[in-house]
Design brief:
Length: 155
C-alpha cells in the first residue's frame, strides 16, 4: 500500500481555472487509509473550491483508482477537469483513461505503508527519497494524523 499526503490547497488550485468543470475522484483504498482520498476529503476540497467560485460538478469514490475500476466513473459530459485524490499510480491511470481531460493530482506519494487494524494506524515502512525522514512514522488510519510513541495524536 502507498501512503500519500495531500498537496496544499494552493498547489491544487494553481492548476485550475474558473473555466474548468471539475470532477473529483477519490481512492477508497490506500489514499483513504492515509486520510487523503476518502469521501470527507473529497467533500472538503469540493466545498473549498466552490467557495472560491470553481465549478465542481461531481465526485466519485472508487475502490482503487490505480486499477481499471476507475472506468466505472461515468463523468458528466460538461466535465473537462479531473482532480485525483490518490497515489501517483491512480493519477497516471486516470490520465490514460480520461485522456481528453485535464487531470490534476491532489496528493503526493510518501512511500510504502503497513496497516495495523487493531490499533487503527498505518506506518511508513519504506519511504521514497524525498520523504526518508518519515520512515517508521505512524499515522491514524483514515485521518493521516501523526501518532506519537504513546499512541496519541500529535498536535
Amino acid at each position: 500500500m502507498i501512503f500519500t499526503e495531500t498537496l496544499t490547497y494552493d498547489d491544487i488550485k494553481k492548476n485550475l481555472t474558473k473555466d474548468d468543470v471539475i470532477a473529483i475522484i477519490g481512492c477508497s483504498s490506500c489514499a483513504r487509509m492515509s486520510g487523503t482520498g476518502g469521501e470527507k476529503q473529497m467533500k472538503d476540497l469540493a466545498m473549498q473550491l466552490r467557495g472560491e467560485g470553481f465549478n465542481v460538478k461531481e465526485g466519485f469514490s472508487i475502490n482503487t483508482v490505480c486499477t481499471p475500476k476507475v472506468l466505472q466513473a461515468k463523468l458528466d459530459p460538461k466535465v473537462n477537469t479531473v482532480i485525483t485524490l490518490s497515489c501517483s499510480a491512480g493519477t497516471s491511470n486516470a490520465t490514460q483513461i480520461f485522456a481528453e481531460y485535464k487531470v490534476v493530482s491532489g496528493c503526493s506519494d510518501v512511500g510504502l505503508m503497513t496497516a495495523n487494524k487493531n490499533e487503527g494506524t498505518v506506518k511508513v515502512a519504506m519511504p521514497y527519497d524525498n520523504y526518508k525522514e518519515t520512515k517508521g512514522n505512524t499515522y491514524k488510519m483514515f485521518t493521516g494524523e501523526l501518532v506519537n510513541k504513546d499512541g496519541e495524536v500529535e498536535k
